[in-house]
Structures are given as structure tokens and as C-alpha cells.
Amino acid sequence: MKKIISYTALAILSICFLMPFVIMVFGSLKEVKQAQIDPLFWLPTNPSIQNYINIFTNGIFLRWIWNSIVITVIPVFTQMFFAAILGYIFAKKSFFGKEVVFWTFMAVIMIPQQLFIIPKYIMFADFGWINTYYALIVPELWAIMGVFLVRQFLQGIPKDLEEAAFIDGANDVQIFFKIILPLSFPVIATVGTFAFISNWNDLFQPLIYLTNEKMFPVTLGLASMLGKEGNFGLEMTGATISFIPTFLIFIFFQRYFTEGIQMSGIK
């Protein structure tokens, strides 16, 4: 009876969580006339892919997709790279003030990032970075949480592996690239997944630093489209296309993502 109740509750919750995605996909298949007559009724009476044709023939939407790719892909690779190196240093190396530096980094996470917006905006304006990729890419080149995840993961790797490699004549660089990096792939994939989803779905920072429509990422572009178009079907089409990359990334790295979380000490 307990299993029946548990599975029934899980099935109901699954349906509740799945419904917004179903509404989004079916809403993207609604014709313009139907969307205007009854925008709240999401089930299309005559499914059509015209919204997809319209949105892909709209040059500005393709530019938004390209902007999202640029401001997402670069931080993903840099965050994985710096998280691997810094996590290895904090986990396996000893130097003066290591614990103080690390926990100072961790303390920064507790500060709401919104408090930095005005100083960052003033600084970026002085640099001439407003309406450029730099304002969105440079602050995201590395992430403290990624360093924390890798550090926690590497602390579970026996030090005997490094000592054996040292005895065989390997140096720190060889040990990192040939031993540590392959072993830490699950947690590095986790860092990359977090970085991709966070940067791809970010609306707050582009809203602050970008005013030129050609520089909008897809999140901000869809928000502006909501105010201009008023077409429910077209908006759901854009949301569906925007959702696909994050869905594919999570599906592809799901196994490594779960393993990385479990072995990083996060409960």
C-alpha cells in the first residue's frame, strides 16, 4: 500500500511538472488566428508549423540564438578549465593561507549578486562594455561553485595515485592532465552543465547591460517579443526552441551530472 501511494503521488507530481512543457509545445503549434481568438486554450485544433517557419525566417531571432551561443559556450569551457585547475590546487596542494583564501571565495557566494549590479554597470560603462559581449562573458569566465564541486570531488581521490606517479617520474602538469583530469570528468561535466543552463537561461544581466536589440540573447529577445508581438503561438515557439539546447545538454550529461553531484559531497 505504501508503494502504491508513493508511486501514485510521484505520477501526479510528474504530470504537474510535465504540463508546462506540454502546454509550451502544443501552444507553439497553434495558428495565429486561433491564438488571437482564444490564447488561453493551449490545445491546437488545427496543428501547424507555421510559427516555426515564421520565427526562423525572422533574422533577428537567429541573431538572438547566436548571441546566446556566444555568451554561453565561452563561459562553459572557461569555467570547466578554471574549476579543474583551482579545484585541484585547493584539494591536493598546500600553500600559505589556502583555507583562508578558499573560504573567502565561498563567503562571496553568500552575498546577493544584485548588490554588485550598480558598481559593475558603472565599471563596464567606463570600459565601454555596455551593449557588448564582454559585460556578459568576462564576469562568468570562472565560478566559485564550480571550484567547490571539483575540490570536494578530488578530496575523495586517494593521494597514493599522485605519489605513485611522482615515483615514476611524473611532474605536476603530467599528473593533472593524465590522472586527475580523466578521473574528475564527471564533476567537470557537472560544472559545465550548471554553467550552460545558468548562462543560457540568464535574463537579469542581459536586461541590465544590453539595450540594443541586435545584442539580445534569446531570453531577453523572447521577453521583448512578448511585449511587441502579442502572439501566444509565436511566443511558445520561441520558448520551445530556446528550451531544446538545455534539454539536450542535460540528457547527454545526465549520467555524469548525477555521479558528479553524488561524489562531490552535496546532499
State the secondary-structure class: mainly alpha
The parts where pLDDT drops under 50 for at least 5 residues are none
The number of helical elements comes to: 15
The percent range for strand residues is: under 5%
Note the gap between the termini.
28 Å
**Average predicted local confidence, pLDDT:** 85
User: Percent of residues in helical segments?
Assistant: over 70%
* DSSP strand count: 0
General shape = globular
- The radius of gyration is 23 Å
Following the backbone from N to C, one meets helices and strands in this order, namely: HHHHHHHHHHHHHHH
The major pleated sheet works out as: none
Which helices and strands appear, and what pairs or packs with what?
Elements: H1 2-28, H2 32-37, H3 50-56, H4 59-92, H5 98-109, H6 117-127, H7 134-137, H8 144-154, H9 160-167, H10 172-183, H11 185-200, H12 204-209, H13 218-228, H14 232-252, H15 254-263
Helix pairs in contact: 1-14, 3-14, 4-8, 4-11, 4-13, 8-11, 11-15, 13-14
Describe this structure in words.
The chain is an all-alpha fold and 267 residues long. It is 73% helix and 0% strand. The longest helix is centred in the first third of the chain and has 34 residues, at 59-92. It starts with a helix and ends with a helix. The mean pLDDT is 85.
A few lines on this structure:
The protein is an all-alpha fold and 267 residues long. The protein has helices spanning 2-28, 32-37, 50-56, 59-92, 98-109, 117-127, 134-137, 144-154, 160-167, 172-183, 185-200, 204-209, 218-228, 232-252, 254-263.
